[in-house]
Amino acid sequence: MKLTIGENIKALRTRKGVTQETLADVLGVTCAAVSKWERGETYPDITLIFPLAYYFGVSVDELMGYNRDKVEEDIGRIIDDFHNAYWKERDFEKAKKIIDDGYREYPDSYEIMSRYMWTLGVTDAEPDLDAALAHKEELEKICDKIIGGCTDGAIRLNAWHMKAILLHAEGRTEEALKMLEEKCGSWYSAFEQLSEKIFKKDRPEFIYWAKRNMYELASFAADKISKSIFFDASIPEEERISGIEACGDALTDAYVKTGSSVFIEMARSLYGRLSNDIKYRDIGTEEDEARVREKYAAANSIVNANCDKDKALYDSIYGNQ
Q: Which end of the chain is less congested by CB atoms within 10 angstroms, N or C?
């Protein structure tokens, strides 16, 4: 956040009707010093901040130009811009620049630093252990700052995840796994699972959370099905693609027969993962990618249409972005 203390001093001085010379005399500094403050060339000494605020009858925040609501709004905009560039535009260089600039401007924002640390080449989907070691000192400082001061559970878990990656990169894998077990809990202690259990089963709220969790778990399971086949080197490459695609086709058929959105959401997730892996993993052909991408687009269109009438489905997909 840009400091506007110089502009504020000039505006407050003008409003009070005093000259630069008068203000300089009150503070025991030179007129040239006041002039430099107002032109933004230098800042007042920290020992003068409270006397300045008292003299003008304003708070220190007001004197410094700090506006908490404006800061939170700006941080939210940075994160939205980052997500749009990363997830919608798929422009990773643009996304990295947005979050790099944001981190320089707001280095103490847990929301920004949490996203920034994953742009240092490590990534949470498939960590580059060399990149983790190369940025180890910076990453550890960020993780410790988050764990020591942040109260947001999701951001704290991200920090523990990164610390586990750093331990693994150092060859301390058993320590990493034990730490994750202690800090992250089991499937049944997850927020989503516990969210169902605060409602009676005959309540609409219970149905909403049960369905939302079902959709999220279904999508998650489909992603794991695709990965478990695609990265299995014991299976010939062409059989990996055809096997995963067959699973997606079967799920699409199940949707046609039942009308249940859970099956088409699984198919969408599976086709999406497969087309992405074909494109970036150098397995399969352009024809394979185009065919699977077309199936993904068709499934995605159905899911988006169903989102209009199923809030649980919509929130399961878009609620965490």
A: C
User: Whole-model pTM?
Assistant: 0.64
- Per-position pLDDT tens, the chain of length 321: 566 889 899 999 999 999 999 999 999 999 999 999 999 899 999 999 999 999 999 888 888 877 777 788 889 999 999 999 988 888 889 999 999 999 998 898 999 999 999 999 887 667 889 999 999 999 999 999 999 999 998 899 999 999 999 999 999 999 999 999 888 877 777 777 788 888 888 899 999 999 999 999 999 999 999 999 999 999 998 899 999 999 999 999 999 999 999 999 999 999 999 999 998 888 899 999 999 999 999 999 999 999 999 999 999 988 754
> Residue 171 to residues 85, 143, 166, 281: CA-CA distances in angstroms?
34, 19, 9, 26
CATH 1.10.260.40 for the 5-64 domain, yes or no: yes
Q: Where are the domains of the chain?
A: 5-64, 68-185, 193-318
* Owner of token pair 């062409």: 238
Residue pointed to by tokens 């920090």: 159
Interacting residues of 19 by C-beta distance below 8 A, sequence separation 6+ = 13
3-state secondary structure 85-139: HHHHCCCHHHHHHHHHHHHHHCCCCHHHHHHHHCCCCCCCCCCCHHHHHHCHHHH
